[in-house]
Design a protein that fits this description.
CATH architecture of chain A: Sandwich
CATH topology of chain A: Jelly Rolls
Shape of chain A: globular
Structural class of chain B: mainly alpha
Largest sheet of chain B: none
Strand content of chain B: under 5%
Helix content of chain A: 40-55%
Oligomer: heterodimer
Radius of gyration of chain A: 18 Å
Strand content of chain A: 25-35%
Helix content of chain B: over 70%
Number of domains of chain A: 1
Order of helices and strands of chain A: HHHEEEEEEHH
Distance between the termini of chain B: 14 Å
Distance between the termini of chain A: 56 Å
């Protein structure tokens, strides 16, 4: 606990506001926002630092929001019944994860663990809701882009599922 | 996990001791935070309408000054007139009370001559005068302890202005101190407390306003003297749950009895008070408090008694919100601990 406080407050590794905004600009959910709008979003996000192996969130925890990796990497791990944890993906700088947590209340579907010293921007549901309330135009832009991102991931998942199903059928025929 | 729990317990104990030792110094800060919390929804509403944060806060302060000025201009003459009339009639009320006591004493002594040596009327009057004098002597000190004039006039508005302007940044900086392991839980907890507390406080404020207006109109309508003053008193007293209509009725009955003895009007006042309490309990509170923390009326009274006993008037005002926040904190902590123990298994 004290290491986390030290890393987050006392060490002089804090990214400046403009660097955070630059990272936000590159995220599809905040694509096309003006500098003023990005500054408003920047005021709502948290920059968090994680040590190697430190957990960002755990499978089954309530979903509270998304993370954007600024530096380092994050392993996404899923618990398999009667088996070892399965590494689903390793995300690096610029990648984001957990965005479904912004809109639904379902528990986290996987565990996220820092791989090496990692810095990430957190954007959470309470702040997202207050953003929509205070700045509905900006909130609507973010909601639409969030919807586009999620639908793109869904299409990709559907396609991967279709490919898997086709491959499975071909293998079955070959047998 | 136990080390973290011990640290949390230590932090809370430290914060409690700090608040207890430096309570009087922290009062302006606590009051400023309370007022800023109440005004925040209005700031956010103005932001929603396109105002910048700074413009919204300035607009609220401008509006507040205007309301105070208009209120002072319109209400002050009426209130001053009623208070002055009451003060003018006070000697008369005092004589009436004295005569009533003497008559009661004579009636009692005619039936029980042995009571003459106790001089009941004189004894009661002496006790009442001693009590009133004692209360009046301690009242200035009581007010000073709760609040200094400087705090009310200068520090609270000044701090409230900056809390409204920079409150989000201050909150964000404080939340950032939480370790990663409990960061999301802390954020969720603060969000839940925020939602429930703001709903409760705004509901309580609206409730006080409605009860004050109802009381002022009702008592003025039935011809109770100083109806507006009694309405104002009822409204302020209703910031403490259930107290408003009772406080208003008590004063209305006292004033009516002093004016003309126990007449039918006293019973009309009691009926009006019951009607106001019924409207408050079955219409106003359920409508305003439907989204706030659900508390049983017995729990409310218990909290008011305990908080009032320990912290006086401020305890009664802030006891329920503090309990609501504490309840949410304990429930979240239980959920987190349950999850941690399942993981350990």
């Amino acid at each position: 606990m004290f290491d986390a406080i030290w890393n987050n407050i006392f060490r002089n590794r804090k990214k400046s506001e403009s660097q955070v905004i630059d990272f936000l600009r590159a995220v599809p959910i905040f694509e096309g926002l003006t500098d003023g709008e990005l500054r408003i979003v920047e005021s709502k996000v948290y920059v968090r630092r994680y040590a190697d192996g430190e957990r960002v969130f755990k499978e089954g925890d309530p979903s509270l929001g998304m993370y954007i990796i600024m530096g380092g990497a994050v392993n996404i791990i899923r618990q398999v019944p009667d088996g070892p944890p399965q590494l689903l993906a390793t995300l690096t700088g610029g990648d984001f994860f957990g965005e479904i947590g912004l809109i639904d209340d379902a528990p986290r579907s996987a565990t996220a663990v820092a791989y090496g010293e990692t810095e990430a921007i957190g954007f959470f549901k309470p702040d997202f809701m207050s953003l929509i309330q205070a700045k509905p135009d900006l909130g609507l832009k973010v909601v639409v882009r969030l919807g586009k991102t999620l639908s793109a991931r869904l299409r990709r998942t559907n396609e991967e599922l279709r490919q898997f199903h086709l491959k499975h059928q071909q293998e079955a025929r070959a047998l | 996990m136990w080390i973290d729990l011990a640290c949390v317990a230590g932090l809370l104990t430290g914060a409690g001791l700090f608040g207890y030792v430096l309570g009087s110094i922290l009062v302006p800060f606590a009051v400023s935070a309370f007022v800023a919390y109440l005004l925040l929804p209005i700031v956010e509403l103005l932001e929603h309408r396109g105002f910048s944060r700074r413009a919204a806060v300035v607009a609220i302060y401008g509006g507040g000054i205007l309301v105070l000025a208009v209120g002072a201009f319109v209400l002050t003459p009426q209130l001053t007139k009623q208070v002055q009339t009451f003060r003018g009639k006070l000697p008369g009320y005092s004589n009436l009370a004295h005569e009533t006591l003497l008559t009661a004493q004579r009636d009692l002594e005619s039936h029980f001559p042995e009571l003459q040596r106790y001089r009941i009327a004189e004894t009661i009057e002496k006790q009442v005068v001693t009590y009133v004098n004692g209360s009046l002597q301690s009242l200035p000190q009581l007010l000073l302890n709760a609040f200094t004039l400087l705090s009310v006039v200068v520090i609270v508005p000044f701090m409230t202005f900056y809390l409204l302007l920079e409150g989000s940044a201050i909150k964000k900086a404080l939340i950032s101190l939480v370790p990663n392991r409990y960061f999301e839980n802390a954020l969720n907890l603060i969000y839940l407390v925020d939602v429930n507390l703001s709903a409760y406080l705004l509901g309580q404020l609206m409730d006080a306003l409605i009860i004050g207006l109802l009381s002022a109109v009702a008592y003025s309508f039935i011809g109770v003297h100083y109806g507006m003053v009694i309405g104002l008193l009822s409204g302020l007293a209703n910031l403490i749950p259930y107290v408003g209509p009772v406080a208003g009725a008590s004063v209305a009955v006292l004033v009516t009895v002093l004016e003309g003895g126990i007449t039918a009007k006293v019973f009309v006042i009691l009926i009006v008070a019951v009607a106001i309490q019924v409207v408050d309990n079955f219409l106003v509170q359920p409508t305003l408090m439907s989204e706030s923390v659900d508390l049983h009326p017995l729990a409310v009274i218990a909290i008011l008694l305990i908080a009032g006993n320990v912290w006086g008037l401020w305890g009664m005002l802030l006891g329920i919100p503090a309990y609501c926040a504490g309840k949410i904190f304990v429930e979240e902590l239980r959920t987190v601990l349950r999850r941690e123990s399942v993981d350990a298994i």
